[in-house]
Amino acid sequence: MSKKPIGLFDSGVGGTSIFRAIHSLLPFENTIYLADSKNAPYGEKSKVDIIALSKKNTELLLDFGCKLIVVACNTATTNAIKTLREKFTLPFIGIEPAIKPAALKTNSGTIGILATKGTLSSELFNSTFHQHASHLKVIEQVGEGIVELIENGQIYSKEMEELLKSYMQPMISANIDYLVLGCTHYPYIIPMLRKLLPENVTIIDSGEAVARQTKNVLIQHDLLRTEENLNPKNEFYTNGKVSVLSEILNGDYPVTFKNF
Length: 260
Ligand code: DGL
Known about the structure:
Blueprint: E1 6-10, H1 16-25, E2 31-35, H2 47-63, E3 68-71, H3 74-87, E4 92-93, H4 99-105, E5 110-115, H5 117-120, H6 123-132, E6 137-142, H7 146-151, H8 158-173, E7 178-182, H9 190-196, E8 202-204, H10 207-220, E9 234-238, H11 242-248, E10 255-257
Parallel strand pairs: 1-2, 1-3, 2-9, 3-4, 5-6, 5-7, 7-8, 9-10
D-glutamic acid binds at residues 10-12, 14-15, 40-43, 73-75, 116, 119, 147, 183-185.
C-alpha cells in the first residue's frame, strides 16, 4: 500500500509548488499530479462548480490508485474539502492561507493577504480569519489576473509587473510586515514581489506546513514509504498546455497531456 502514489491536484500548474515541498521532505514517495488548467481559474467559479471539479479530479486520482490526496489549491480546499472528506474514504490534505503564523509574528499589527476571490469569500477562510486575525488590521487583496498570466506562461511579463504593483501599493502604504500568499500559484511570483516590497516584509506561503502535515498523516495511516528508492515515479498530467507545466517544472519531469 505504501508504494501507491500520493495524488495532488490543482486548478493548474500552481500546485507544483506544493509538489516541490512534498518531494523535498518525502523524496521516496511516488506521486501523480493533475493540472486542471482547462478549468483555471477556480477562484472565479461558484462553490458548486469548484466542488464538482474537485470531485472529478479526486475520482481520476482514485482510478490511478492513489493512497492519499493533497488538494494543492487553496480555492478547492476552502470550498470543497469538507464535501470530499464526506464522500471519499481516503485521507485528504488541504491547504489554507497561513494567517495564524503571520498573526502571531506581526510587529506592525498589519498584515496583507493575497488570494483568490473564491478563497477570500469562503466560510473556511472567514472562520480561520476570525479565530486568528480579527484583532489585526488585515489588507485583503483578490489576485485577479495572476493565475491566468501564470497559466499562459507569462510570469515575468510587463502585465504581471503592473498588476502586482497595483496590488502591493495599498499594502505597502498600510505598513504591512507580513504578506500571506493564499494561492499555490503565487510562490512563483515571489521574486517579483520581493522587488516591490520593502525588506522588512516577510512573505509566507503554506508549502512546508502542508508537506509536514502530509508526512504526519501518512505515518498515522501506516502509508509512509520508508524504503530507499532512487527512482520514485513522479507523474504529471495536464489538460492544458504541456509546455507551461513542463516549463514550471524546469523540464525536470516529463508531462503528459490528458483530457479530463
Ligand atoms: N492554485 C489555486 C489556489 O491555490 C489557484 C486558484 C484559481 O485557479 O483561481 O487557490
